[in-house]
Amino acid sequence: MIQFPMRKGWKRIHRLVVLPDYQGVGIGVRFINAVSGAVAAEGHSVNLTTTTPALVGALKRSSDWVLVRKGIAKQGDWASRPGMLHKQLGRRASDKRPTFSFNWKGAA
């Protein structure tokens, strides 16, 4: 969990890794939900952005998350947005994949 850049009061789930043998059984989503609930209880809003199809499907089915953005981020998008301090450095593997952004709306 990190401070969401340029958004006071927001936290962002930065990275979650589940070992391949344990993927697909809900461990990651349960962990994300527990952490998001605890962070929300402290008065913060929570965002998660992913390109992982299985996680996208799980969060779309969940009543605790709301999809707020979907699309393909093109190289340079961060650098071209007014007010953003970020500058994209080179190409990433996810440059051509659809990106989905969710906000936590579950119970704190």
Describe the protein's architecture and organization.
The relative contact order is 0.23. 26% of the residues lie in helices and 23% in strands. With 108 residues, it is α+β, with helices and mostly antiparallel strands. The chain has a 5-stranded mixed beta sheet, covered by helices on one side. It has helices spanning 27-41, 53-61, 77-80; strands at residues 2-3, 10-13, 45-50, 65-71, 99-104. A hairpin with a 6-residue loop joins strand 1 and strand 2 (10-13). Mean pLDDT is 83; it is low at 82-89.
What are the salient characteristics of this protein?
5 strands; globular
How do the strands and helices of this protein lay out in sequence?
Elements: E1 2-3, E2 10-13, H1 27-41, E3 45-50, H2 53-61, E4 65-71, H3 77-80, E5 99-104
How would you briefly describe this protein structure?
It is built from three helices and five strands, in the order ββαβαβαβ.
Tell me the strand order in the biggest sheet: 1-2-3-5-4
Radius of gyration: 14 Å
Distance between the termini: 16 Å
Unreliable stretches (pLDDT < 50, length at least 5) are: 82-89
Helix/strand/pairing class, anyone? alpha+beta
User: What order do the helices and strands follow?
Assistant: EEHEHEHE
Give the biggest sheet: 5 strands, mixed
Helix content: 25-40%
General shape = globular
Beta strands, count: 5
Put simply, the count of helices is 3
Assembly category: single chain
The percentage of residues in β strands lies in 15-25%
How much is the average pLDDT? 83
